[in-house]
């Protein structure tokens, strides 16, 4: 370790696969409780304020759309903790 | 993939790295804090700091929402979870955070009905599906996550759901930044601003950094090139003697934030007079509680909790790590007594925590380098 506290310049190791029960995926970071959002596409609208959305990996989930009230099928949304924070550009 | 592949281009990364090197003043040591745990994760995962000159140091700040929860609040949650008839829910990362007397996972093993959920909405659905039980959601997170809790509560109120409540631990981003700037043992040259918190609050709340402290901040995205670009923008500001709020993440972050989200937050929450942050102590007006209009959903009014402040274990140096005073590997118990499997401190629990991120992505590199030396 250098005196400046910086990491030495060596290649990164293989990635580990997990950190135990209840942990988030260390490869991709925590998508539920950190302050990161993930892009998802609206598949269909449930009712006022709720939509079924699909992630990049094909997984679907219910998403609250109260902050993007005019969300429509095909819209790309930035989703965090089950809530759409804003609309990204449509495909 | 849009928003991803374009921001991992090695050639662009090298060019940005060269640009940063060209603005560095020899002999000066730069300390730049990334506030957000997501940024810390990206830095360690992709080795972003390896591309920086030796005198540009990245300091990891208190932006992991799990890491800043004090032990006493975990004990309060466990007390609620152990009440008869309660289904206690929280995000996955919270399960292993140690309190004064064990974690939620320990309490679950002892018989408490504690389940982890991916959103507050999942917890609300659980309440609908279990009308004879009381479902409590242990809410954590900054302004990014708070709207999700708020919208869920608005939905619960509109639907007249009576067996759902929230134990609110939501925190706000600006007060800890002020606390860091006032901290006598830390001198920072600039901040990398949080990306998705800023989608909600916008960029204006950071004006005080430039006006009161003459310190630049650049709101940044989460890809490796986002971080290199934001560091490059910071270095240009420092080189030119400027201190401004800049938005590198303009493809996602509106300058004014999400006004509807801010309205929702204002309706459902109000500021607590003070709140304890792990490592930073009590900070005034730095956290949210439910407003009077949502008092019926406030778990802290529904259930009694110990409400006792619990000191961190002596060996644990999460406080210094969260303030950026020491690096994770400089903690006495890092990687030995404290690992992601058996965490002593919160920074080792969450994948966004500086210690866990470094443990997972950086410690092998250090071992190799020492062996080589």
Explained architecture:
Chain A has 91 residues and is mostly beta strands. Chain A has a domain at 38-88: Roll (SH3 type barrels), CATH 2.30.30. Chain A has strands at 38-47, 50-55, 60-64, 76-80, 83-88. A 5-stranded antiparallel β-sheet of chain A has the order 3-2-1-4-5, with no helix packed on it. With 373 residues, chain B is α/β, with parallel strands linked by helices. Chain B folds into 3 domains: 28-63 and 173-272, Rossmann fold, CATH 3.40.50.11750; 71-171 and 287-302, HypD, alpha/beta domain 2 (Rossmann fold, 3-Layer(aba) Sandwich), CATH 3.40.50.11740; 318-361, no CATH class. A 5-stranded parallel β-sheet of chain B has the order 2-1-7-8-9. A 4-stranded parallel β-sheet of chain B has the order 4-3-5-6, sandwiched between helices. The two termini of chain B are 40 Å apart. The chains are: A mainly beta (91), B alpha/beta (373). The interface between A and B is large, with 48 and 77 residues.
What are the SSEs and their pairings?
The complex is a heterodimer of chains A (91) and B (373).
Chain A: E1 38-47, E2 50-55, E3 60-64, E4 76-80, E5 83-88
Antiparallel strand pairs in A: 1-2, 1-4, 2-3, 4-5
Chain B: H1 10-23, E1 30-36, H2 37-46, E2 56-63, H3 71-81, E3 86-90, H4 104-109, E4 114-116, H5 120-129, E5 134-141, H6 146-158, E6 164-170, H7 174-182, E7 190-193, H8 195-201, H9 207-213, E8 217-219, H10 224-240, E9 245-247, H11 259-268, E10 269-271, E11 274-277, E12 281-284, E13 288-290, H12 299-302, H13 318-322, H14 354-361, H15 363-372
Parallel strand pairs in B: 1-2, 1-7, 3-4, 3-5, 5-6, 7-8, 8-9
Antiparallel strand pairs in B: 10-13, 11-12
Helix pairs in contact in B: 1-10, 2-14, 6-11
